[in-house]
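Quick one:
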Amino acid sequence: MTTLELSLSPDLSPGSWLAVCEEARLIPGRGVAALLPDGRQAAVFRDRSGRTYAIDNRDPFTGAQVLSRGLVGSTGGRAFVASPLLKQRFDLETGRCLDDEGVAVAVYPVRTTAK
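Output:
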């Protein structure tokens, strides 16, 4: 079994990794929401090439926890998720809004571990 984990710390310290789900449960092109220990949520995705991403689940334009339900696509070779509410697109690697460069969401490093 392979587990998907995300880091809650930018320095990737050993104690910062949180198990989210079995990697096989991620369906390419669809997101899942993960509740973090501090009450925030992360939106976790696998793109069609098999790469995994985790960003903040909160849509900064509406405040709703909905990005995990967004549409996954790509533009210029970059994977993004479009908010299901107002359709702004967020780069899954950087968190930057592709439609408003002054807005971004947090990005969480991800890894898989065999157990």
